Amino acid sequence: MKKEKKGITVGTVTEIEKTQLLDYSEKLSSLKELLLLFRNDFVENKDDFNIVYEKFVIDYTNTKKDIQNWWNEKSNKYLWEGKGSNDRFWMIDFNTREIILCDR
User: Fold this and answer.
1) What is the C-alpha separation between 75 and 92, in angstroms, rounded?
2) Can you give the residue ranges of every domain in the chain?
3) Which DSSP helix (H) or strand (E) runs through 98?
């Protein structure tokens, strides 16, 4: 394990695995931005907003599940250490593909 400024490197993932997580993360970010734009600028009819909001919630929830499933699958595959409490979390450095264990 290599010590980092932000935490401890506990492993790496493949380029394909990194890209999967990056795609999920970008989708989640885009969904958040879309909701803000829609809510702030494009709502003329509350019924329209409710229909779109329901679809947003479903897509957002599914994307969050995809991200959590990604972390669960990769942590089981690579047996990363250290995330045994709510005081710690893993993050990825998308430039190096390293998984870093951080303290909250």
Assistant:
1) 12
2) 2-103
3) strand 98-103
